[in-house]
Amino acid sequence: MKRIYYASGSFLTGSAIADAIVAYADALAHSEGSDVVNFPILHDDGTPGEASMLIGPASQLACSTAPEHHAELENDVLVADLAKRSLQIGAPRPMMQAQSEIETTTDFD
Protein backbone atom coordinates (compact mmCIF):
# COMPACT_ATOMS: atom_id res chain seq x y z
CA MET A 1 0.00 0.00 0.00
CA LYS A 2 1.09 3.58 -0.62
CA ARG A 3 -0.15 6.94 0.54
CA ILE A 4 -0.37 9.68 -2.11
CA TYR A 5 0.05 13.18 -0.73
CA TYR A 6 -1.71 15.86 -2.73
CA ALA A 7 -2.25 19.50 -1.77
CA SER A 8 -3.16 19.41 1.91
CA GLY A 9 -4.46 15.84 2.07
CA SER A 10 -3.57 12.26 1.28
CA PHE A 11 -5.09 9.07 -0.09
CA LEU A 12 -4.28 5.46 0.76
CA THR A 13 -4.29 3.22 -2.30
CA GLY A 14 -2.50 0.25 -3.80
CA SER A 15 1.21 0.49 -4.55
CA ALA A 16 0.89 -0.18 -8.30
CA ILE A 17 -1.96 2.33 -8.53
CA ALA A 18 0.02 5.04 -6.73
CA ASP A 19 3.09 4.41 -8.89
CA ALA A 20 0.99 4.60 -12.09
CA ILE A 21 -0.62 7.87 -10.96
CA VAL A 22 2.75 9.46 -10.19
CA ALA A 23 4.18 8.31 -13.54
CA TYR A 24 1.13 9.70 -15.37
CA ALA A 25 1.41 12.99 -13.46
CA ASP A 26 5.05 13.21 -14.53
CA ALA A 27 4.13 12.62 -18.19
CA LEU A 28 1.38 15.24 -17.99
CA ALA A 29 3.74 17.75 -16.40
CA HIS A 30 6.23 17.33 -19.25
CA SER A 31 3.50 17.84 -21.83
CA GLU A 32 1.87 20.70 -19.93
CA GLY A 33 -1.40 18.76 -19.92
CA SER A 34 -3.85 17.86 -17.21
CA ASP A 35 -6.39 15.15 -16.53
CA VAL A 36 -8.68 13.82 -13.82
CA VAL A 37 -7.90 10.36 -12.47
CA ASN A 38 -10.42 8.28 -10.52
CA PHE A 39 -8.95 5.55 -8.36
CA PRO A 40 -9.83 3.26 -5.45
CA ILE A 41 -8.83 4.28 -1.92
CA LEU A 42 -9.21 3.14 1.64
CA HIS A 43 -10.62 5.64 4.12
CA ASP A 44 -8.99 6.02 7.53
CA ASP A 45 -11.54 3.61 9.02
CA GLY A 46 -10.61 0.96 6.42
CA THR A 47 -13.75 1.24 4.31
CA PRO A 48 -13.27 1.31 0.54
CA GLY A 49 -13.96 4.42 -1.49
CA GLU A 50 -13.00 6.25 -4.64
CA ALA A 51 -11.07 9.47 -5.11
CA SER A 52 -10.87 11.84 -8.05
CA MET A 53 -7.70 13.83 -8.50
CA LEU A 54 -6.89 16.56 -11.01
CA ILE A 55 -3.26 16.20 -12.03
CA GLY A 56 -1.26 18.45 -14.29
CA PRO A 57 1.86 20.60 -14.60
CA ALA A 58 1.29 22.37 -11.28
CA SER A 59 0.50 19.20 -9.33
CA GLN A 60 2.78 18.46 -6.44
CA LEU A 61 2.42 14.79 -5.65
CA ALA A 62 4.40 12.61 -3.31
CA CYS A 63 3.85 9.05 -2.26
CA SER A 64 5.29 6.82 0.40
CA THR A 65 4.85 3.27 1.51
CA ALA A 66 2.19 2.80 4.15
CA PRO A 67 1.75 0.12 6.80
CA GLU A 68 -0.22 -2.77 5.38
CA HIS A 69 -3.05 -3.15 7.87
CA HIS A 70 -5.43 -3.89 4.98
CA ALA A 71 -5.34 -6.01 1.85
CA GLU A 72 -3.50 -4.38 -1.06
CA LEU A 73 -5.85 -2.46 -3.36
CA GLU A 74 -5.43 -3.59 -6.94
CA ASN A 75 -6.89 -2.43 -10.23
CA ASP A 76 -4.91 -3.85 -13.14
CA VAL A 77 -7.21 -2.20 -15.70
CA LEU A 78 -6.59 1.26 -14.21
CA VAL A 79 -2.83 0.70 -13.95
CA ALA A 80 -2.66 -0.47 -17.58
CA ASP A 81 -4.80 2.48 -18.73
CA LEU A 82 -2.58 5.02 -16.93
CA ALA A 83 0.55 3.38 -18.37
CA LYS A 84 -0.99 3.58 -21.86
CA ARG A 85 -1.89 7.25 -21.38
CA SER A 86 1.62 8.01 -20.13
CA LEU A 87 3.16 6.36 -23.19
CA GLN A 88 0.83 8.18 -25.56
CA ILE A 89 1.81 11.52 -24.08
CA GLY A 90 5.49 10.70 -24.45
CA ALA A 91 5.14 9.35 -27.98
CA PRO A 92 6.88 11.49 -30.57
CA ARG A 93 4.53 13.27 -32.92
CA PRO A 94 5.41 13.93 -36.54
CA MET A 95 6.15 17.55 -37.33
CA MET A 96 5.96 19.31 -40.64
CA GLN A 97 9.05 21.16 -41.77
CA ALA A 98 8.85 24.36 -43.68
CA GLN A 99 10.17 23.98 -47.21
CA SER A 100 12.96 26.46 -46.44
CA GLU A 101 14.19 24.20 -43.62
CA ILE A 102 14.54 21.14 -45.83
CA GLU A 103 18.05 20.84 -47.17
CA THR A 104 18.26 19.84 -50.78
CA THR A 105 21.35 18.75 -52.56
CA THR A 106 21.91 17.95 -56.14
CA ASP A 107 24.69 15.78 -57.37
CA PHE A 108 25.63 16.32 -60.99
CA ASP A 109 28.63 13.95 -61.08
Rg is 20 Å
pLDDT averaged over residues: 86
> Percent helix among the residues?
25-40%
The total domain count is 1
From the spread of the alpha carbons, the general shape counts as globular
Distance between the termini: 69 Å
Helix and strand succession? EEHEEEH
Give the strand tally: 5
For the biggest β-sheet, the strand order reads 2-1-5
The portion of residues forming beta strands comes to 25-35%
Helix segment tally: 2
Helix and strand content put the structural class at alpha+beta
Which stretches of 5+ consecutive residues score pLDDT under 50?
none
Largest sheet data: 3 strands, antiparallel
What does this structure look like?
It is built from 2 helices and 5 strands. It has 109 residues and is α+β, with helices and mostly antiparallel strands. The longest helix is centred in the first third of the chain and has 17 residues, at 15-31. The protein is globular and about 35 Å long. It starts with a strand and ends in a 19-residue tail after the last helix. Helix 1 (15-31) runs parallel beside helix 2. 29% of the residues lie in helices and 28% in strands. The protein has helices at 15-31, 76-90; strands at residues 2-6, 9-13, 35-42, 48-55, 61-65. The chain has one domain (2-94).
